[in-house]
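Hi there,

I know you've been waiting on this one. I reran it after we fixed the sequence typo, so this is the corrected version. Both the input and the resulting structure follow.
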Amino acid sequence: MPTSDTLTIAQTGDAILTCRTQAVVHFDQALVQLADNMMATMFAANGVGIAAPQVFRDIAMFIMHSRPNERYPDAPDMGATIVVNPQIVSRSDEMELATEGCLSIAGKRVQVLRHKKITVRYQTLSGASVEKELSDFVARIFQHEYDHLQGITLLERINMDDQVPLKASAPQRHFPRFWQRDAQVSNND
């Protein structure tokens, strides 16, 4: 069995972060190896998610792995989910404002509105279809990583129309122990 390698993480200014990804059509060993390498990279950076564009791949795949770690000691433990060719099928009207970081924007934390609940559809590494409802912290991770597949980073997200009018009225108490860490903790995804 091949070993996993950590990959270079794209940073603000790298063109790959502004491009829409291509759908995955080949569910093969190369895709499995990329997922293994992305997982190793995410763990090494203490992230809770990582998208293929963040490791210079233009395919529609990301990993979510909410778990307690150095940066998120109170994060819910959900295990890793590898998401291929995702879609957001529906979004709740209710949105929440919380602070997010990103592996591709080192040292920055920003307030971002996200839908509290979403229904999603995606494929697994074997190509099987999955549909499920996500909420709270896990829904936030999905939306953040999904943005990367659309060529949208936090710096673009915070300037979109859906952010400005709602900021004043959106609840802000959600996720502080997950997203707002003191300055001694790394500011990554």
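Quick highlight: Confidence is low (pLDDT under 50) at residues 165-189.

Best,
R. S.
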